[in-house]
Amino acid sequence: MAEAQWYVAHTYSGYENKVKATIDKTVENRHLEDQILEVRVPMQDVVELKNGSKKSVSKKMFPGYVLINMIMNDDTWYVVRNTRGVTGFVGPGSKPVPLTDVEMRSLGIRDNVDVEVDFAEGDTVSVIGGVWKDTVGVIQSVNVSKQTVKINVELFGRETPVEIDFMDVEKMN
User: Fold this and answer.
1) CATH 2.30.30.30 is held by the domain 124-171
2) What CATH number matches the domain at 5-47+55-106, 3.30.450.40, 3.10.20.30, 3.40.50.2000, 3.30.70.940?
3) Residues of 11-42 as b/e, b for ≥16 C-beta within 10 angstroms?
4) Of 117, 122, 119, 127, which is closest to residue 138 (Cα–Cα)?
5) SS3 helix, strand, coil % of the chain, rounded to 5?
6) Of 41, 79, 103, 141, which is most buried with the most CB atoms under 10 A?
């Protein structure tokens, strides 16, 4: 059996959540749970400054696009392509092109691989890679699904929380 990969479907702007809900419902009705595994509308938290007050809001990372983790075959292609609000897949002509692992990692989406780590909340870690390399911090939270830890680092004399990849931290003795 083919392996599931991430594909990008283009939608009418503003229809992303409707498309996600419709595909989820169709998957349930047609019992395609083993072929269309997940549908996502990537969101990011943004702080807006309006009328002098800060407000945290979630915004779509890619307006007009929906990410779909599925096994590409005639049935799944038909279900997605004929969903109201979908204009097509991203790729040349009518051939969908799956996202690469590098592209998925940059979006913060990884394969569901269980990673065992030897650190937990409250542990002191040293950052061994990335922007915060050679920084030491205390773990505030561990996000296994995103494979990240949130630590507090000192920035301009203040404690600032930053999210760091599992691979970029090392537990201190």
Assistant:
1) yes
2) 3.30.70.940
3) beeebbebbbebbeeebeeeebeebbbebbbe
4) 122
5) 20, 40, 40
6) 79
Q: What are 127's strand-pairing partners?
A: 169
Q: Which of 142, 146, 148 is nearest to 121 (CA)?
A: 142
d(CA 173, CA 170) in angstroms, rounded, equals 10
Q: How many CB atoms are located within 10 Å of the residue 106 CB? A: 10
Name, in order, each residue with C-beta under 8 angstroms of 154's C-beta and a sequence gap of 6 or more: 160
User: What is the C-alpha radius of gyration for the chain, rounded to an integer number of angstroms?
Assistant: 20
SS3 label, residue 82: coil
CA pair distance 126, 110, nearest whole angstrom: 23
For the chain, the structural domain boundaries read: 5-47+55-106, 124-171
Tokens 């000192």 belong to: 154
pTM confidence score: 0.60
